[in-house]
Amino acid sequence: DCWGTYDLSVGGFERVVQNPWYLRPAGELATGEYQLPAGLSVARVATVAELIEFERASWVGFEESEEMLDSRPPFSWHPAATVENPNMHYLVARFAGQVVAGVIAHASADMLGIYGLSTLPTFRRRGYATALIRAAVALRPDLPASVFPDPPSVPIYTPLGFVVAGEIAIW
Q1: Average pLDDT of 15-24?
Q2: What spatial distance separates the first Cα and last Cα of the chain, rounded to whole Å?
Q3: What span, in angstroms and rounded, lies between the C-alpha atoms of 126 and 94?
Q4: At residue 1, does pLDDT exceed 70?
């Protein structure tokens, strides 16, 4: 329910969450005095092996239990074939060679959707997520970008020009 306007409870559904979604108009990000955090590199996932690494880091970033991590087979969230999709961009941030954060950007004909931003808990609050969002927007600055952030991550997006565009209800 992209505008949070429907009442699906009559069909037996239960609203799990209703939060704002954000939109950023097309355009380059101002570089100003921005610098990538020291020691960090950002790159696009290019191989299936890198996608496995991305996916594992996502699970850790979303704080899956060790039991869950050990029981999940690779590609249970992100199919291997999506690496070859030219509109699908998996980005990783590496520090000392380790994947410490990741994000997905999907470009359609008229929108860049940004999804699944996660950072390993011990690497948070260092600017790594901001670096990834900047890199995602830079992939297609000709497109507006949309995101449905969880409330604690909103401060990552608003300084980059994202504004509330509506509400999404998840049923």
Answers
A1: 89
A2: 8
A3: 12
A4: no
pTM above 0.70, yes or no: yes
Q: Which of 105, 163, 103 is nearest to 139 (CA)?
A: 105
147 CB-side CA count, 13 A: 26
Question: Which candidate, 74, 125, 76, 121, places its Cα nearest to that of 100?
Answer: 121
Distance between CA atoms of residues 43 and 36, nearest Å: 12
Question: What is the Cα gyration radius of the chain?
Answer: 17
**CA 75 to each of CA 6, 15, 48, 83, 127: distance values in angstroms, whole numbers, following the listed order:** 33, 28, 9, 11, 27
In contact, 53 and 43? CB cutoff 8 Å:
no
Flag whether pLDDT at 129 surpasses 90. Answer: yes
> Contact, 39 vs 98, CB < 8 A?
no
Rounded CA separation 165/154 (Å)? 13
Other CB atoms within a 10 A radius of the CB of residue 141 amount to 14
Question: Do the beta carbons of residue 22 and residue 157 sit within 8 Å?
Answer: yes
**HSE of 152 in the Cβ direction (CA atoms, 13 Å)?**
7
User: Is residue 116 within 8 Å of 102, Cβ to Cβ?
Assistant: yes
